[in-house]
Write a structure and sequence with these properties.
Blueprint: H1 2-9, H2 12-22, E1 30-31, E2 37-45, E3 53-60, E4 76-82, E5 84-89, E6 94-98, E7 103-105, E8 111-116, E9 121-128, E10 137-142, E11 145-150, H3 151-154
Antiparallel strand pairs: 1-2, 2-3, 3-9, 4-7, 4-9, 5-6, 5-8, 10-11
Length: 158
């Protein structure tokens, strides 16, 4: 079922309609320290107390420049519907995720985006907001051990 949805969303007319719909309801965009856009985010389906799922359209303008891999607060599914990207898992394996494809991961899945198609990539990011199971953070080498550092601390926002 999810592969059919991904294939449908990647049709240019449908993708354009999804972007136009999402742009009506912006979420917090993420910028680099120099002010350039890293990721634009818009609501497609807002979090509601009576609905376990929420969805946002993400425009990923470039790869992750953080040296360490990150996880997410929620289990999630992502569907690129315009463009694609290479991502790297915890063990260094690299995987392509492009238009018409989809993948899902648990919140504790550490990864990073290592390359984005020219012009960026649009994705539909779907998550179970009522099942927050994990504080978002980065996996960092600390001497001879690896520790998870909360995202605000890692990004110097504390």
């Amino acid at each position: 079922m999810w592969n059919l949805i991904a294939s449908y969303l990647s049709r240019p007319r449908i993708a354009n309609m999804l972007v136009a719909y999402a742009r009506r309801d912006p979420y917090t965009h993420i910028y680099d320290k120099d002010g350039s856009l890293y990721m634009g985010r818009w609501w497609v389906l807002r979090e509601r107390a009576w609905l376990p799922w929420a969805a946002r359209a993400h425009f990923i303008a470039r790869e992750d420049r953080d040296r360490d891999k990150h996880d997410h607060p929620y289990d999630y599914r992502t569907i690129p519907f315009c463009g694609g990207y290479w991502w790297e898992n915890l063990f260094g394996g690299r995987f392509w995720l492009g238009e018409g494809q989809t993948t899902r991961h648990p919140a504790e899945h550490f990864h990073k985006i290592v390359e984005v198609s020219d012009g960026g990539v649009w994705t539909l990011f779907i998550y179970r907001h009522r099942r927050q199971s994990n504080p978002w953070g980065f996996l960092v080498a600390d001497g001879d051990r690896v520790v998870k550092v909360p995202w605000r601390e890692y990004l110097g926002e504390e």
